[in-house]
Specification:
Blueprint (H helix, E strand, L loop, with lengths): L2 E7 L19 H16 L6 E4 L3 H14 L5 E3 L9 H10 L5 E6 L3 H9 L14 E6 L8 E7 L1 H6 L6
Parallel strand pairs: 1-4, 2-3, 2-4
Antiparallel strand pairs: 1-5, 5-6
Length: 169
Amino acid sequence: MDVELYLLRHGIAADGEAGQPDADRPLTAEGRKKLRSILRSAAAAGVSPSLIMTSPYRRAVQTAQLAAEVFGYRGDVLRTNALVPGSSPQAVWDEVRVHRDHGQILLSSHEPLMSAAAAFLLGCAALTVEFKKGSIARIDLERFGSSPHGALKWLLAPKVARLGDPGKG
């Protein structure tokens, strides 16, 4: 079964405060607004995940919850340590392989993991992929062996999404 995998970097988050764990930083109002715009564009492009997974960090969870709302997702948002900032592309791949029975999977995570995971999933670890906050990419996967072989279908950055936001205006 083929899988459409969506890599979503969390939106703009509040700056860290003294004594506050990095994992507790929430999305800002601007971050939510820009994220909603890109998610509406993605929905217009046919994104309708059957599974949403997220890093347990607050900003990633909030991003995943906003995605669930915009995409009309009714399932549980699965939190996984495979998507924390310090994780590895191999851990992301291993998690995706466990859930490969879903036709569309959305991952909500962080940099530099999203860039590294995209390069790894495309079979070119040296590839540079720039994931701005709130960016989303679609990678299609056909095989689920020990190493991935994906095809990049598109990458949408917030600046581009705002130009054609179907919900704007």
